């Protein structure tokens, strides 16, 4: 189909038959292979393409023009080849530099395309290379291996077919993110035989560059299952903390999302390059005008000279003053052509080379902790660095340590945490309800601990329950310790805070979350997870409590939570003041709210939610409307404040950048 991308498991022949037309009635396969090519040149195109790029520099065009003038004996001042030699040296130096860079790209492509992987062939997996992967193949991945193509996660060796991935090569984030297979594939695909017999059909959007979104459906055994980005492993991710996982290849090679984001390698032209081109044009125009004036003057002088010295007329019988002026014009062009010296450009190239070596050798740019020196990947890097005027930076993890600690909270109109009026210095507290020993308590407020222990305040109970339920953290039990894996350090800090206060997150499956509330184990059925994104600025979880009540728990930025409250009373006003106070202390704030949902309301909403979740067109917009409907008339529970300290040397670095006249902008947060 032209409008959608259809993938059939274990059916290479189906994907081979589709062609798409492009220029001159030629065709190529719709479903491309997995081999990639990021190099600019090959053995045939290097010379013409590189020369074409080099002659985009006006100076090179100017030098060729001067050499062409020198080929005419009537106006030549030097043999033409004496000028061709330095120009050739300049072109060769730049060409070699580009060639070395491109050979590096070829080597990188070769290494990536020849990486080994296990592909299902017949009824067993066999080792092949990345370049052999096709759309529709089932691939087995092992711990610490890279994902070779965009794949639908079918199952893994972890409970509930979870899969932990590191996306550092895609977005620089070192926190582990989790992906989870569909319940049906997790339960059914349990052996190599069942994998070989799998004949599911994925219908999804055409290949695109949107890294954080995916819309599709899996049709198998007469049923349709909704697919989103949480089920997809992207090319370039790395498998962590997961021994084995299996995936169905959806997009391969240049159709994968990371390759769609790469784009073509374009020749970069710095502001200085453009300025030099403009200067060459201006100098050339000045040269033209100067030569023209001198030529006209020489014509008048020749006319006067011939009239005055008529006895020399035999020497000038073949040339008129006008002809002499014409030849003199080109002669002056050659004589004055050194106004743009070729040697300056050759000197530039050597200066760039030496400066790039200085960057590599700079001990002050050597990071001893990881034994990493600075590496200039381009010889002209120094030239480019000197032209930077603005730096746009993220805050979290870039300027800060990305190590979050729960510092303060405001619950039901009361602020808890260090610096509050009722805070007392307290020795290390051991909770009688905790079955899992904690090495330390990041957050310790005696009054809050006592309130949590007594369990008399329903708002405090709901607040702590929300911290333990409304998140995407995964848990693993090692000995008597619970180890949390969180995609976001904020979430881990909140879950640890709830644990310290007696609400311990114990386990999660595809559709349940188990927590211990002051020593009593309770299992909540997850009815829906309303995901966080940068537009919504909030996340919610809809759960059925053990006694049957349905509740919605929501946490998010104050700007979006406060406008969705059922009422705004004194308690809400006080919480807003507390949020401002936390923000002034440079703490990261979140608002927490909840509401009870009736059975009738849930049934209607659930049916519409299922219909929207299997749409191929406008799925995100329809789900957004449903989330918006559900997240109304909330009751505010309180607010949290988390500290994320700056990395060492950030203030000094910003000060040095400002001394270099570089303007630093920090783009972050959910408020202008």
UniProtKB/TrEMBL annotation:
The record gives the membrane topology as: Multi-pass membrane protein
* Catalytic-site annotation from UniProt: 394
Q: Which gene encodes it?
A: Atp8b3_0
Q: Show the catalytic activity.
A: ATP + H2O + phospholipidSide 1 = ADP + phosphate + phospholipidSide 2
Q: What is its main location?
A: membrane
Q: Identify this protein by name.
A: Phospholipid-transporting ATPase
Residues the record lists as binding Mg(2+)? 394, 396
Instruction: Briefly state the protein's biological role.
Output: P4-ATPase flippase which catalyzes the hydrolysis of ATP coupled to the transport of aminophospholipids from the outer to the inner leaflet of various membranes and ensures the maintenance of asymmetric distribution of phospholipids. Phospholipid translocation also seems to be implicated in vesicle formation and in uptake of lipid signaling molecules. May be responsible for the maintenance of asymmetric distribution of phosphatidylserine (PS) in spermatozoa membranes. Involved in acrosome reactions and binding of spermatozoa to zona pellucida.
Looking up PROSITE patterns in the UniProt record yields:
ATPASE_E1_E2
Q: What is the lineage of its organism?
A: Eukaryota, Metazoa, Chordata, Craniata, Vertebrata
């Amino acid at each position: 189909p032209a409008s959608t991308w259809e993938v059939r498991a274990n059916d290479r022949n189906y994907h081979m038959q589709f062609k798409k037309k492009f220029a001159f009635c030629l065709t190529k396969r719709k479903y491309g292979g997995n081999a990639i090519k990021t190099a600019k040149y090959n053995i045939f195109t290097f010379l013409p393409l590189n020369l074409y790029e080099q002659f985009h520099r006006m100076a090179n065009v100017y030098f060729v023009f001067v050499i062409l003038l020198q080929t005419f004996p009537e106006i030549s001042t030097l043999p033409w080849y004496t000028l061709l030699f330095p120009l050739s040296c300049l072109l060769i130096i730049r060409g070699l530099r580009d060639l070395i860079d491109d050979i590096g790209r070829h080597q990188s492509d070769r290494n990536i395309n020849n990486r080994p992987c296990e592909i299902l062939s017949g009824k067993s997996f066999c080792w092949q290379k990345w370049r052999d992967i096709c759309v529709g193949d089932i691939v087995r991945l092992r711990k610490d291996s890279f994902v070779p193509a965009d794949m639908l996660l079918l199952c893994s060796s972890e409970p509930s077919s979870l899969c932990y991935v590191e996306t550092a090569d895609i977005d620089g984030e070192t926190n582990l993110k989790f992906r989870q297979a569909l319940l049906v594939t997790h339960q059914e695909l349990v052996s190599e035989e069942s994998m070989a017999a799998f004949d599911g059909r994925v219908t999804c959007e055409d290949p695109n560059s949107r890294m954080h979104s995916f819309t599709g459906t899996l049709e198998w055994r007469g049923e349709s299952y909704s697919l989103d980005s949480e089920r997809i492993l992207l090319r370039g991710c790395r498998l962590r903390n997961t021994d084995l996982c299996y995936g169905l290849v959806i997009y391969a090679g240049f159709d994968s999302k990371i390759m769609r984001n790469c784009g073509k390698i374009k020749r970069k032209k710095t502001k200085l390059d453009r300025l030099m081109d403009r200067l060459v044009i201006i100098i050339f125009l000045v040269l033209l005008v100067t030569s023209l004036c001198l030529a006209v003057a020489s014509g008048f002088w020749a006319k006067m000279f011939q009239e005055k010295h008529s006895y020399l007329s035999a020497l000038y019988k073949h040339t008129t003053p006008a002809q002499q002026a014409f030849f003199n014009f080109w002669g002056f062009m050659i004589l004055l052509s050194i106004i743009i010296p070729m040697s300056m450009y050759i000197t530039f190239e050597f200066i760039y080379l030496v400066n790039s070596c200085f960057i590599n050798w700079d001990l002050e740019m050597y990071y001893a902790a990881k034994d990493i020196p600075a590496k200039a990947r381009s010889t002209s890097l120094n030239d480019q660095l000197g032209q930077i005027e603005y730096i746009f930076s993220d805050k979290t993890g870039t300027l800060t340590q990305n190590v979050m600690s729960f510092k303060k909270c405001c619950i039901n109109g009361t602020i808890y945490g260090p610096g509050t009026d009722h805070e007392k210095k307290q020795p290390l507290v051991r909770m009688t309800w905790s079955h899992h020993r904690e090495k330390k308590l990041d957050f310790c407020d005696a009054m809050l601990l006592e309130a949590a222990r007594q369990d008399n305040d329903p708002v405090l109970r709901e607040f702590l329950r929300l911290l333990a339920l409304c998140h995407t953290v995964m848990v693993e039990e090692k000995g008597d310790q619970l180890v949390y894996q969180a995609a976001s350090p904020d979430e881990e800090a909140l879950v640890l805070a709830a644990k310290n206060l007696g609400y311990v997150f114990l386990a999660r499956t595809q559709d349940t979350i188990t927590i211990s509330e002051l020593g009593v184990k309770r299992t909540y059925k997850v009815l829906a997870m309303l995901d966080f994104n940068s537009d919504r600025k909030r996340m919610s979880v809809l759960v059925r409590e053990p006694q049957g009540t349905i509740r919605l728990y929501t946490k998010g930025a104050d700007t979006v939570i406060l406008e969705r409250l059922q009422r705004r009373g004194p308690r809400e006003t006080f919480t807003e003041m507390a949020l401002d106070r936390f923000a002034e202390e440079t703490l990261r704030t979140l608002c927490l709210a909840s509401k009870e949902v009736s059975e009738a309301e849930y049934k209607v909403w659930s049916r519409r939610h299922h219909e929207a979740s299997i749409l191929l067109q406008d799925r995100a917009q329809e789900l957004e409307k449903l989330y918006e409907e559900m997240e109304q008339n909330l009751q505010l529970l309180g607010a949290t404040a988390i500290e994320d300290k700056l990395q060492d040397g950030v203030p000094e670095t910003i000060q040095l950048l400002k001394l270099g006249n570089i303007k630093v902008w920090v783009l972050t947060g959910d408020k202008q």
